[in-house]
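Researcher: Here's a chain I'd like modeled. Treat it as a single chain, no partners, no ligands.
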Amino acid sequence: MTTYGTDLDFGGALAAPSRCPDCGSHNLRAACHDDQAVFLCPTCGQGWQIEMGRVTRAEPATGPTVTPN
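Model: Modeled as a single isolated chain. Structure tokens:
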């Protein structure tokens, strides 16, 4: 019987985005909107969220509260 194995990078797969998918800025800010974590880009004004392991555009947030670093 042959067995196979691989190393999985769960930290990388589940980590917060390091740059904006739209403009590429490394200046994302964590925020909370409707009890959901979002990432706001002050450069292009887009908001991003992580859903099912993918980074997707967040619905426009009206006055999100930015969490402290």
